[in-house]
Amino acid sequence: MLGTFAILVARLIFGGAFLVAMVMKVLAIGDTAAAIASIGFPAPLFFAWASAFFELGLVLAFLTGAFFTEAALLATAYVLFLGFAFYGPATWPGNPMQMGLFINHLTFIAGLLFAAVHGPGRTLALGWTVRRPSTRRTGSAARAD
Asked: Does residue 111 have a pLDDT over 90?
């Protein structure tokens, strides 16, 4: 019971965090594009919208449990990129607070990796996932070795 509750709360936190990020991007898409341009990334307006839609996908995955592991792994890569691009070691000399923001990204990544391994739980989860090819050999092929 406690495990189920903890997983649901974690899913709400992940979904809520990406929902807030998405809403803030959409409400200030010009500012988001300017921030993207400030790190020298090309096509900032395109990437501002692309990141908002990507975050919407993450919200749906975390809240429904659909493609949960895949979403957690994609979110890990996304948060790692954001951490280094916007708050990485190159930004620390000018503003020591950037290091704290970078470390916050790392702790978020730790939670995402833990979630990816353990999945969405069984309660209120669609459980959809990308089908992986089986590596297990059966029948005569297994005996031929």
From this structure: yes
